[in-house]
Amino acid sequence: MGILIFWDNDVERGIRESAEKMISVILDMPVNSQENPVMLRGYDRTRNQNDASRILGDMQDFYTRRMGCGNSILIVTGKDLYIQGRDFVFGLARPGVNVSIVSNARLRNSWYGRQDNADDMTDRLVKEGTHELCHCMGLDHCEDPECIMYCPQTLDELDRKKKTLCEKCSQELNIYRFSDLAD
Ligand SMILES: [Zn+2]
Ligand SMILES: [Zn+2]
Predict the structure, then answer these.
(1) CA–CA dist 111, 152 (Å, integer)
(2) Domain assignment of residue 183, yes or no
(3) Residue 166 lies in a domain
(4) Among all ligands shown, which has an atom nearest to the Cα of 146?
(5) How close is the Cα of 166 to the center of ligand 2, in Å?
(6) CATH number at residue 69
(7) What's any GO biological process attached to this entry (predicted)?
(8) Given 108, 132, 178, 179, which residue has the most CB atoms within 10 angstroms?
């Protein structure tokens, strides 16, 4: 059991290693990574966004066909994402097949007309990437606004979250961890 991160080529290399380390510490699990091997389809020209459900569908095919391991997979992309019925999503997870995606397009200060800052962006990416990975491991949304599993609607709500799980969510993650070992 572990985490596998697929970095899309439009995500800057400078932030990757520190983001991986932080996610590994929060989840207390090993994190491996590689360049994203999957073409990200589902581009909608009128929206200038990619359909996150479509990408996870492709991932599901890739995963079941070629990856026989028990890793939870997270794709990190710079492409802005949407799903039907929503203007945008920061990320999306498909727990049954252990695949998820997160976009850093809206995690940059410059998206909101502010000065970019690599640390801000890395922090947000770690929170939202860990959030999607926890969905893969069976965790649901949390009402604690400081917990990683809180579902933020805005950047400010995202920034209010800490890079930790609340006690309740930590316990749920432990149940996942230990039930997996007992299998
Ligand atoms: Zn969520
Ligand atoms: Zn929580």
Answers:
(1) 16
(2) no
(3) no
(4) 2
(5) 4
(6) 3.40.390.10
(7) proteolysis
(8) 132
Ligand number nearest to the C-alpha of 95: 1
Give domain status of residue 28, yes or no: yes
Give the pLDDT mean for 151-167. 96
Cβ contact 78:16 at 8 Å? no
The tokens for 178 are 């230990």
* Catalytic sites, residue numbers: 132
> Residue 5 C-alpha to ligand 2 middle, in angstroms?
23
Query: In angstroms, what is the span from residue 93 Cα to ligand 2's centroid?
Result: 17
What spacing in Å lies between the alpha carbon of 133 and ligand 1's midpoint?
9
pTM, 2 dp: 0.93
Helices (H), the chain: 16-27, 52-66, 118-136, 155-160, 167-182
What distance in Å separates the CA atoms of residue 55 and residue 58, rounded to the nearest whole number? 5
pLDDT digits (tens, 9 = 90+) for 107-125: 999 999 999 999 999 999 9
Nearest ligand (C-alpha, residue 148): 2
Other beta carbons less than 10 A from residue 65's beta carbon: 8
Domain that holds residue 131: 2-139
Q: Has residue 181 got a pLDDT over 60? A: no
- φ/ψ region of 110 (left if φ > 0, alpha if ψ in -120 to 50, else beta) reads alpha
